[in-house]
């Protein structure tokens, strides 16, 4: 039964979710299924289905960002019932769920508010599990490089909570009493984590939480004065809000970020802040199925996923401050290929996605430039190799002008490498060998694709693909088409770039020089 449920839910995640619009037990917000209508609601061929599934990790983050689907909202009773089921028949302990909930909160915060800008965090924790989530989040935030403080005025005398307090004390996280807290929280903190009440809140807030909630409400008066105020991150429910009816009199707190756990509660529909995240990546399919939960998939290994619209940003304000170790002339390899290998190894070790992806720029005889990404498939003293279609635009341009440049950008490492040189086709044997090492689907794809030519529609590609798939279904060798093969760029110029603060980056350029009839690489530092 379990495997059937798992299977069913996986399929639902891929294809069936957009068909859910109403269910008896949950209310749904239906986003305009713009992309969904073209991708999901049309009959798709088996190839489309398979390729979508295999890419579901990457697609999932896109899906949630584009608000493609409807999201379920829970009533208070449903939230409590799910909690009981998780901790009853499903075998979870409260400690486990709280740990995952608190970690989700900390990772959501870290996705939006970087510790370099928002370091001082105050977690205001209530007496129940919401408060426990706040204590766990504070601990993870400490390990993520933030400076957390905790206000925990009504401590729950249970081993779980006293354990969480001890863990924080062992990290020297300061505990502040309500009397210690400044009346105006805006000067001392960058982030206020509202972990006072979750889905069991009822009635009007009692002391001391009434006053603490009021201090968060007051912060919005600073909005008019344009004074920088701390951001408010509410865990699961903005404290003081009715779990289903939200901010009834409109005078409650207005969080900037809401981290819903398991599934958003009904009040989250009224959340107007910039960042709505979902955390609590522990919902087993049996729960999702029972409550007809429709939730976006979590991307990759993430503990949280953005739901709701991404914030509108002023693009001109987007910038990173690069902080890297010094990159000095005396540290580098004398041979740029060795230096490239060293940095490539670092990119591999840093677990970057597709570190071998590089931008290839070419220009035809008319001098017009074009760039595109290709995958590096080999590098040695002879140069840099990639594979492609010999009748594509890049191939035409390379036949007219056999010069190109390559560009690598390793974002996580603040590094860029530029390479320029002349290009030749690799030998037929080399292309043959590489072609047959590729997955059979990609081999067929290379036959089907007359790269860079106009196709009347995707169906044409599918149809040809399926015909060839059938033809080669006996496992026989798929012949490499003559129009497919590799190129090798022989480098004449390298530049290794590493981002530094205040835009004073490191740039080391290698250019060939002849000294006493011998070719050596001259290394120059260029101004950033
Ligand atoms: N499955 C999940 O998603 C998980 C979520 N978690 C988190 O747990 C909360 C719900 O936790 P719970 O302990 O049930 O409830 P609360 O944290 O909301 O608070 C209950 C305590 O608050 C007191 N309370 C209630 N109303 C008031 C009020 N008006 N004024 C003052 N105090 C109030 C209540 O006392 P009572 O005497 O009134 O009963 C309780 O002491 C959920 O939202 C998530 O954040 C889990 O961590 C993991 C699983
Ligand atoms: C990450 C990435 C890697 C790619 N790798 C290759 C590749 O190795 N070979 C290739 O022909 N196209 C690759 N492509 C597709 C090319 O970017 C491009 O669309 C295609 O080669 C046609 O380019 P052209 O019309 O300029 O010749 C890749 C695209 C991306 C985004
Ligand atoms: C059109 C095309 N050809 C070739 C490749 C390289 O793929 P492989 O690693 O299978 O050789 C890619 C990679 O994205 C591609 O998009
Ligand atoms: K809360």
UniProtKB/TrEMBL annotation:
Cofactor note: Binds 1 potassium ion per subunit.
Keywords: Flavoprotein, FMN, Isomerase, Metal-binding, NAD, Nucleotide-binding, Oxidoreductase, Potassium, Pyridoxine biosynthesis
Reactions listed under catalytic activity: (6R)-NADHX = (6S)-NADHX; (6R)-NADPHX = (6S)-NADPHX
Molecular function GO labels: FMN binding; metal ion binding; NAD(P)HX epimerase activity; pyridoxamine phosphate oxidase activity
One Pfam assignment: YjeF_N
Domain YjeF N-terminal residues, every copy: 79-315
GO biological process: pyridoxine biosynthetic process
UniProt pathway: Cofactor metabolism; pyridoxal 5'-phosphate salvage; pyridoxal 5'-phosphate from pyridoxamine 5'-phosphate: step 1/1; Cofactor metabolism; pyridoxal 5'-phosphate salvage; pyridoxal 5'-phosphate from pyridoxine 5'-phosphate: step 1/1
PROSITE patterns (alphabetical): PYRIDOX_OXIDASE, YJEF_N
Enzyme Commission no: 5.1.99.6
Residue sites binding (6S)-NADPHX per the record: 129-133, 198-204, 236
Annotated positions binding K(+): 130, 194, 239
Cofactor(s) this protein requires: FMN; K(+)
Transmembrane regions listed in the UniProt entry: none
Top EC class of this enzyme: isomerase
Family assignment from sequence similarity: Belongs to the NnrE/AIBP family.
NCBIfam families in the cross-refs: pdxH, PRK05679.1, yjeF_nterm
HAMAP family membership: NADHX_epimerase, PdxH
PANTHER family: PYRIDOXINE-5'-PHOSPHATE OXIDASE, PYRIDOXINE-5-PHOSPHATE OXIDASE
Assembly: Homodimer.
Function text: Catalyzes the epimerization of the S- and R-forms of NAD(P)HX, a damaged form of NAD(P)H that is a result of enzymatic or heat-dependent hydration. This is a prerequisite for the S-specific NAD(P)H-hydrate dehydratase to allow the repair of both epimers of NAD(P)HX.
Protein name, as recorded: NAD(P)H-hydrate epimerase
């Amino acid at each position: 039964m379990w495997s059937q449920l798992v299977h069913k839910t996986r399929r639902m995640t891929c294809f069936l979710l957009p068909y859910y619009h109403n269910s008896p037990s949950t209310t749904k917000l239906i986003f305009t299924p713009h992309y969904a209508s073209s991708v999901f609601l049309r009959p798709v061929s088996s190839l489309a289905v398979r390729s979508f599934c295999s890419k579901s990790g990457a697609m999932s983050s896109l899906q949630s960002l584009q608000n493609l689907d409807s999201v379920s909202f829970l009533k208070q009773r449903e939230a409590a019932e799910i909690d009981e089921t998780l901790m009853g028949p499903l075998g979870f302990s409260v400690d486990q769920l709280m740990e995952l909930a608190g970690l989700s909160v900390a990772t959501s915060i870290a996705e939006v508010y970087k510790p370099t800008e928002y370091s001082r965090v105050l977690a205001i924790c209530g007496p129940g599990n919401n408060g426990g989530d706040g204590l766990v989040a504070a601990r993870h935030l400490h390990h993520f490089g933030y400076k957390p403080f905790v206000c925990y005025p009504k401590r729950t005398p249970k081993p779980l909570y006293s354990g969480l307090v001890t863990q924080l004390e062992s990290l020297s996280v300061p505990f502040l009493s309500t009397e210690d807290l400044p009346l105006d929280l805006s000067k001392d903190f960058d982030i206020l984590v509202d972990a006072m009440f979750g889905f069991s809140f009822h009635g009007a807030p009692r002391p001391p939480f009434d006053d603490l909630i009021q201090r968060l409400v007051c912060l919005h008066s600073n909005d008019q004065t344009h004074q920088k105020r701390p951001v408010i991150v509410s865990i699961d429910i903005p404290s003081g809000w009715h779990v289903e009816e939200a901010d009834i009199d409109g005078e409650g707190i207005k969080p900037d970020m809401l981290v819903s756990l398991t599934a958003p509660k009904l009040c989250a529909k009224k959340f107007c802040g910039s960042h709505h995240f979902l955390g609590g990546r522990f919902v087993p399919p049996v729960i999702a199925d029972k409550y007809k939960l429709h939730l976006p998939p979590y991307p990759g290994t993430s503990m949280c996923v953005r739901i709701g619209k991404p914030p509108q940003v002023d693009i001109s304000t987007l910038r990173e401050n690069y902080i890297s170790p010094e990159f000095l002339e005396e540290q580098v390899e004398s041979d740029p290929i060795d230096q490239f290998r060293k940095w490539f190894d670092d990119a591999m070790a840093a677990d970057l996605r597709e570190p071998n992806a590089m931008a290839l720029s070419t220009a035809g005889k008319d001098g017009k430039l074009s760039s595109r990404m290709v995958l590096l498939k080999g590098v040695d003293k002879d140069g840099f190799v990639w594979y492609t279609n010999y009748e594509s635009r890049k191939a035409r341009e390379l036949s007219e002008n056999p010069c190109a440049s390559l560009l690598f950008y390793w974002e996580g490492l603040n590094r860029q490498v530029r390479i320029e040189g002349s290009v030749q086709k690799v030998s037929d044997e080399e292309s043959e060998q590489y072609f047959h090492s590729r997955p059979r689907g990609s081999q067929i794809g290379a036959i089907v694709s007359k790269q860079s030519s106009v196709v009347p529609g995707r169906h044409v590609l599918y149809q040809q693909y399926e015909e060839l798939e059938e033809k080669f279904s006996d496992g026989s060798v798929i012949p490499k088409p003559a129009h497919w093969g590799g190129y090798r760029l022989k480098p004449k110029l390298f530049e290794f770039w590493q981002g530094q603060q205040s835009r004073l980056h490191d740039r080391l350029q290698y250019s060939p020089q002849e000294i006493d009839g011998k070719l050596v690489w001259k290394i120059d530092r260029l101004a950033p």
